[in-house]
Amino acid sequence: MQGTVGTQAPDVSLQLHAGNVVKLSDFQGKKSVVLFFYPKDNTPVCTAEACSFRDAYSNFKSLDAVIIGISSDTPKSHNGFAEKYNLPFPLASDPHGELRKAFQVPRTLGIMPGRTTFVIDRSGIIRLAFSAQFSAAKHVEKAKDTLRSIHSHD
Fold this sequence. Notes:
It is built from 5 helices and 7 strands; from the N terminus they run βββααβαβαββα. By secondary structure, the chain is α/β, with parallel strands linked by helices. It has a single domain, classed as Glutaredoxin (3-Layer(aba) Sandwich), CATH 3.40.30. Helix 1 packs parallel to helix 5. The radius of gyration is 14 Å and the shape is globular.
């Protein structure tokens, strides 16, 4: 089952807001990856979550991880969102929900796109799949804790 802790992360392509495309496998052997799926740019909880990742960005860099935010918004919307809040990490567009489907991100109440954070280690193994729709800060803390745990076992 994709998106499950202990399994290989799906090797998806990510359309980043700067216009480039990266594959998740591009990071294997180099960096851990934090993917945070969120419902929508410029909404209160999503903005708080993105800004929490921004504020902890140096911690993630020191833990040798890259952060990528993912929502169904367009690259143009992501550009504005990233600029407005000085986000130092890329945002990926998932307009048709293919990335959500690949990672099996659940919907909240069956309607709202879920808020789930994944930590993928350098081997491409999912080490964290954390969902909490209305708690932005917990995503950052759980991701940092997981990365610290990975580094303590390296």
